[in-house]
Amino acid sequence: MRALVFDTTLGGWDETRGFELQDVPAPTLDEREDPSDADKVLMKVHYAGICGTDRGIWNRAAFKDHILASIKSEGGTRRILGHEFFGEVVALGSGASRAAPFPLEVGDFAAPESHVVCNKCFQCLRGEKHVCTNEKILGISHDGGFAEFVKLPAHIVWKTDTSKTRPELGAMQEPFGNAVHAATKVPLKGKTIAIFGLGPIGLFLTLVARGLGASTIIGVEPNPVSQEMAKRLGIDYVIALPSRGKNVPPHHRDEGVIREIEELTGGLGVDVSFEMAGFNSSFNNAIFATRRGGDMIAFGIKTGDFVLEDFNRFVVRGLTVHAVIGRRLPETWEMTQKLFADPSNKIQENIWNIILSQGKDTILPLARYTKERFEEMMAKHPKLLIEI
């Protein structure tokens, strides 16, 4: 089968770039050979999404240790990438239907949770599966969905009703769930919020936050394309993040952005800030933009240390910081599918028409993949799909 991979035989992590399109062995279910296949599902992938993590892997700026260590532990040479995808169930192990969140049959359409949890560790047994001690991540430490077929544990496979969810958007359930998890960390009804980083998940967050009753939504973003999308999605204010001078420390907050947010909030600051970009300066912007006693949601990921400016301010103003990773299981998936199934909120309509531009230059057939073409598309659009 065809797949997009990182291949260790083609050069070291730091000496390569992008994804390789290769013919690789297709997965199969064989309970005689591997009894654990009884609880697994074979899926034919239809659509797979590209997110910030994939861009980081493309540029060799994310998940180096996870990918290399997992390949080594498996005794292999490649990792099939991709963790946001949607497809059709084509084979089931003998116990797979019982292990899935909903009973599955061959021919069902489905999308997977990207975190393969153990269901046995301290966190899993406490209902905190999103922080499982022994988790594997699709496309990083477990082969993913940038391929024609993928074999998955049934317990992460979520049946999807295509009469309610557009097939192209079936692959959006996993990343949209990130926004749902972030938006439900604290109550938003009647609150003023700021979103630092209007990439795909930041854009999804504007839709969820509005649906949850946020009264005013402020976005901070450097990319004009994302700024315009946010405006079309109904965000109240967009602040263009200015370019930073070469001599400005990477952790230093943007004073102009903070002043503008203070002006928009009568000098108070926002009730809740969401740091969605994973940059040190953005983290400090979110801290300084939040009112006394307010909440900050930290979602953006960045390897290494961060400098927290003016630690006293952080403590004295009584801020509460909540870290968000992945999706709560099963609550986030249940809410995501409920939101997708409700046409009155226009969530699917907005994602398709605005974020995916109705598929115009945002969907690339796998057969037409080249590194050059894909890099061009990534430079122009915040969200892409691969049609497989």
Automatic annotation (TrEMBL):
Its cofactor is Zn(2+). Residues 200-336 form the Alcohol dehydrogenase-like C-terminal domain. Pfam families: ADH_N (PF08240), ADH_zinc_N (PF00107). Gene3D superfamilies: Medium-chain alcohol dehydrogenases, catalytic domain (3.90.180.10), NAD(P)-binding Rossmann-like Domain (3.40.50.720). This is Theronine dehydrogenase. Keywords: Metal-binding, Oxidoreductase, Zinc. GO terms for molecular function: oxidoreductase activity; zinc ion binding. Belongs to the zinc-containing alcohol dehydrogenase family. Residues 38-160 form the Alcohol dehydrogenase-like N-terminal domain.
